[in-house]
Specification:
citrate synthase (unknown stereospecificity), lyase, Citrate_synth-like_lrg_a-sub, about 280 residues, 3-stranded antiparallel beta sheet
């Protein structure tokens, strides 16, 4: 009896509805892995593992489109730059990827989750305003500004006057709405934010990749934390690609600046003008 109780306690230590396993058999969310292999695509597996059921094909296509859109934005993105620098330090592909993923926080990587939260607040307020989404967006944005938050997550971009990924994805959402795949309420909220932010401005503040992928994930029923996780999954593809490419160059200890350039020293007793701001060694 004592042995049975000990085993029960051990088995209950980690309880999960995700996987069942015993010698010679693996079941994922109740599906035999042998039935999944070769029959279910990776995007549908992401849905199955995070949501507990397989998506409809049209849902999987929309999710895949959002994942494709977010894979990379070049070495100017901190996560990509860090992956490339880390691989030159000899940490290996896993260390480079982990270093990069660990930078995807609230500022770089978390805006999609924040935008989804913004949309859902707007949807809730619009329900109280008999469906007036733009009035709801105006009210929520006013609350944000009153709290000192003048940046709306998911809108505006440092490099793109118009993020080329947003209109394409939004058109796919519109198609999914027309086909009855999704309801379109998050898309309405996103467009309302864009309209409110454009008022009184010469240049609009258009939706960016975080704003549009938040629409997709919200329309498909993913909660905020999973929206961030899905972005990280997507961006990990770019991180892997850049880390591997950098590894082929054979560079060692590649820093954020070319070796001939150094940083600006702002303290006392620096070098004369025109001198070096710091040493260029490998340490």
């Amino acid at each position: 009896m004592s042995g049975d109780r000990t085993r029960d306690e051990a088995e209950a230590w980690w309880s999960t509805a995700i996987i069942a396993m015993r010698p010679g058999e693996i079941r994922l969310r109740g599906h035999d892995v042998r039935d999944l292999i070769g029959n279910v695509d990776l995007v549908s597996m992401i849905w199955l593992m995070t949501r507990g059921s397989l998506p409809r094909p049209e849902e999987a296509r929309l999710l895949e489109a959002a994942l494709v859109a977010g894979v990379d934005h070049g070495p100017q993105a901190p996560s990509i730059a860090i992956a490339r620098m880390a691989i030159t330090c000899g940490v290996g592909i896993n260390g480079a990827m982990a270093s990069a993923v660990n930078t995807l926080g609230d500022v770089h990587g978390g805006a999609g989750e924040q935008a989804l939260g913004l949309y859902e607040r707007i949807i809730a307020v619009s329900d109280a305003l008999d469906g007036d989404v733009e009035a709801a967006a105006q009210a929520v944005i006013a609350e944000e500004k009153a709290a000192g938050r003048h940046y709306m997550p998911g809108f505006g971009h440092r490099f793109h006057p118009l993020d080329p990924r947003a209109p394409r994805l939004l058109s796919l959402v519109d198609r999914a709405v027309a086909e009855g795949v999704v309801a379109g309420r998050h898309a309405q909220a996103g467009r309302a934010v864009e309209a409110v932010l454009a008022r009184g401005r010469e240049k609009p503040v258009p939706m960016n990749i975080d704003g549009i992928t938040a629409i997709v994930y919200g329309e498909l029923g993913f909660p905020g934390p999973l929206a961030r996780g899905l972005f990280i999954l997507s961006r990990s593809i770019g991180i892997l690609s850049h880390a591997y490419e950098q590894s082929l160059e054979g560079a060692r200890n590649k820093g954020p600046l070319p070796r001939a350039m150094t940083w600006r020293y702002t303290g006392e007793n620096g070098f004369d003008e025109g001198g070096s701001g710091g040493a260029g060694g490998e340490a």
